[in-house]
Amino acid sequence: MENKYKRKFFIGYSNCDRKISLSLLDSFYLIQDMMTEYFGFFKSDNIILKRENNAIWVLTKTKVHFNNLPVWRDIVEGTVFTTNIKPIRIGTETQFKDKYNNILFYANQETCAIDLDDRKIKKISTVNYPKDLEIIEGINKEKYLKLNDEFTIDDKVSEQIVNSTDIDFSHHTNNVAYIRFILNSLSSEFLDNCKVTDFEIHYINETKEGQKLEIYRKLKDTDVEFLIKENDREIVRANLKYKR
Length: 244
Known about the structure:
The chain folds into 2 domains: 5-126, Thiol Ester Dehydrase, Chain A, CATH 3.10.129; 153-243, Roll (Thiol Ester Dehydrase, Chain A), CATH 3.10.129. Helix 1 (24-41) runs antiparallel to helix 3. It contains 4 helices and 11 strands. It is of the alpha+beta class. Helices cover 17% and strands 39% of the residues. Strands 1, 2, 3, 4, 5, 6, 7, 8, 9, 10 and 11 form an 11-stranded antiparallel sheet that branches.
């Protein structure tokens, strides 16, 4: 069965940062759109999964490498495909290319299906997902990081209430909302003077509207480590690599 799904995107002004490049946050929205449409291409998106399997897809990990970012009015082409299917998770890679076929950035993701009643992980074989896909090898050969830094109260930089606009179709905080919380903990000076080369985020637990989150950050010479907690419960861990 055909594995690849492709779509073109026009980079609008509202997608850009103050440098008129695609903002980091909007790059994750493009990745999310590609993944959602890819699953819909297989008749396996969350609307169908909820109706037919009483389940939803949830991301567990995302790892993005940035070569360059497109700018205002550019047209980029996204391609997404499955790189592996394991008993309880699916691996995918999403690539974005410019008009010269150069890869601007690409993302690897792990996705699981969870039961809507008990919130437990379901086997991929029990939900709507094609079993006869031709697996494609992606660009990324690196393993996901082990994000296990210790954080103290001195590393706490802000608090964030989960608002109604952060909630998605699955009735929990949208994955990209956490990335917005993380990026908002960085100053404009940092984002203006540093080029982000990689961003990795691990989704550990869900949150819902009204919950108060604590954002922790450790700024190092070439990377920044993040932790988001709700009381003593870890919600998200992330790592951002950069160069000046």
